[in-house]
Please model this.
Amino acid sequence: MSQSPALHSPFYAHLSRLRFIKRWGLMRNAVEEDVAQHSWEVAVLAHALAVISRDVLGNDVDPNAVATRALFHDATEAITGDLPTPVKYSPAMRHATQHLEGEVCAEMLQLLPAALQPAIQGAMDHHVWPEHEARLVKSADRLAAWLKCRAELRYGNQEFEQAALQVRAKLDEHMTPEVRYFLDTFGPAFEMTLDSLMQGE
Model:
């Protein structure tokens, strides 16, 4: 049975504009990164951490669900833009930022046809994520930031020196078995040149 056409919705058009929103906006970047790229990388890393959690550590977790949530974890930035870390995590602004993101999430979900809202809310609204999945997504987000900082330093960009120390301290403070396994198994290859990667060294 065919469904009647839905009213026009701008939801996915908003998401498509994540490619125009630059991250690390307060810093000079050797290689620019946008929110769409970041979301893809976090989704890949979150999927990897979830597979490690399930297949190495024996936990009950769905890597596909984790990857989907990671793909949408910064979706509200299609409206808010990327909020710089010093603003987002300063004690005075943390509560206001979280409230803003929650409000924007709710408004964006209202842009969807009603039949689609429950599924997309499950992917996009941090408040409804299972705790263990939220933890994996947050770990992947920190891991992506660490890899970005390391890459910038390899390109000779000392602008990221302090950021690398701060992100690594956060990684160590919230170290999980999944992240430890990833860093030990896959981390060293991120420091290699393309020639070395191709030679399997």
Q: What stands out?
A: The chain has one domain: 11-199. The chain is about 60% helix and 0% strand. Residues 11-199 form a domain with the Hypothetical protein af1432 fold (CATH 1.10.3210.10).
